[in-house]
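Sequence in, structure out.
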Amino acid sequence: MKKKSLLLMLSMLLVLSAFLAACSSDSGSDTNDGDADGDQAEAPAGEPAEGGTITYGIEAVPEGLFNWAFYGIATDKEVLDLFDESLITYDENLTPQPHIASWETEDNKVYTFTFEQGVKWHDGEELTVHDWVFALETIADPDYDGPRYTNVQTIEGAPAKNDGSAETISGINVIDDYTVEITFDEARVNNLENVWQYPMSRAQFADIPVAEMSASPQVRQNPVGIGPFKVENIVPGESIELVKFDDYWQGEPKLDSIIVQVLDSSTVVGAIGQGDIDMIDLAPVNGQEVEALDNITVEVYPALTYYYVGFKLGTFNAQTNEITEDKDKYADLNLRKAMAHAINREEWIEAFFFGYGLPVNGPVPSNHWIAADSEDVNVYDYDPELAKQLLEEAGYVDVDGDGFVEDPNGEPFVAKFSHYATSNPTFEARSQAIVQYWNDIGINAELEMTEVNLYYEMVEKDDPSIETFFGGWGTGTDPDPTALWGSDQIWNYPRWKNEESDKLLADALNLEIVGEDQDVRKDLYVQWQELVTSEVPMIFIAELQDITALSNRMGGVTFDVSGKNSPYEWFVTE
C-alpha cells in the first residue's frame, strides 16, 4: 500500500501558508488577542464618524440567491444579513425577542402576531402582514424549489396547499394589515421558533410564477429587503454595493455604505494588512497570520457549527418528501464505524484549523444547551487497529495482496470521497488527509474536488457520483434538528431513515410530554444523539469557533453565540 505521511502534507501546507503571507503582506508583528471566552465581545472603537464606507470581505463567491426563502449557502446568508432582517430576533441565550413583530399565545397552537407600523421595503412600499403571508404561501406552493418547506409545513392546512389540494393555507387568518393569526396543526414547544420569519415583498414578486422566482431578477440582481442597507449594484462573482436606507424603521444607519468584496483566500492577509478590507470572517488558515497584524482586531467567539463526513445511504423523492435507503455500498455499520475510527480528528483539526476548533462527538456543537456529554454518546476516537478489526469482521479483507481490502464478495472496493472546492488552499490538503487515513487502514479511497456551488447541488440531488462527502451544518437558535434529520427532509443529506429518530424528535416538541421542562426536552435530545452516533450516518469531525477580523477604524460591532449584531449599529471612527 502506498502511504504518504500526514506530517509531510502538513509541512507542505505550512510552507504554502507562509509563502502566501509573505507575498501578500508587509505588516508588523504585534499580536491582537481574540476574545475566546464565550462571553459577548465588543471590538475597541473610538468616537463614531459621520457616515463613511466600509469594505466587507468574503472568501467565497456567492451563489447569488439573495432572498431568505431561496438561499442555500453561508456566503449568500452573509450578504442577506446586511440588507434584510427577520420579524423576530434572538438574544445571547438564543431566546426569541420581538423585533418587527410581537406575538401572543395561550396554548402554543394559535398565535396572534402584531407588526410594527411604518416599516418600509427598500422600494418604498410599506411592510404589512400580507407580505409575510405571501412568503408562507410561496414556500408551501407545489412549485416552490427552495429548501424551507419544513418551516411552514406545521401550519394548519400547509400540506394541503403543498400537495395542490388547496389554494391557500387554512391556518392563516389575516385580521388587518398589521395583525395576523397563525394556527398550527398541533401545540408544540417550538412552533414560534420554527415558523418561517422572513416576509417577501408582494409588490416585487406578485407577478412572478413561484417556479420562476429563484431565477428572477428580484432574487438574483435587484433584491429588496427591510434592513438598514439596500442593494445598489451587484457585479456577479466580484462585489456588491449597499447604501444606507434612509427610511429604515429604526432610524438612519451610521454608515453611508458597505462594499462587499469577493476575495481569493491567498490575498486575504495582504488585503487586510494594507487596509483594503475593514471586516471579514476568516478561514482558520488565515487566523494566526491576521492576528499578527497591528492594524487589526481579531475577535474569536463561539460558533454553533460542525463539520462532518457523510455517507450516502439512500435517495430523496422531492415530490413525496420521502427518503428511501436504497444505496448498499455503505450499508454495513461496521464499515462506517471503521472509517470513523480511522480518522485522527485531533491531528487533523490542529493541522487544518490552526487551533480554532475541537473534535465534536455528535450532531450538536458542545456549546448548545441540548448538547450531550461525551459519555452519553458513542465516541469514535482514533484507533486504526480497531478500524482494521471492524473491517475484517464485516468481510472487508485484502484478497489479492495489494494492501487494499476487497468487499465481502471479493470485488474491488474503492471509497470515493467528495469535497467542495474554493480558493481556500487548505481544502484539497485536508481532503487528501482524510483519504490517507482511510488508505492507512486498507481502504482504497479516492478524492474528487468539485466547485462549491455545483457540489451542494449534487449532494442535495443525490448525484450518483456522491458516495461519501464532506459538509458542515449550523445548529439554529431553535435546537430542534428535524429539518436536518427528519425522514421527510431534503436537508437530511445522508438519507438516513429511522423511525426511532423521528419519534424522539417529535416527542421533544410535544407539550404533553415535555411541557415547560427544558430538562425533559434535553433528555430526549440526548437519547436522540446517542441513537445517531450509534448508527453513524455521519462521522462527526470538528466544531469551530468563528473568527472575524476588524480594522481598527471599525466600531459598534458586537458578537455572541447568536452571531454579529445588526450593521445598523456599525460605524467608522475616521
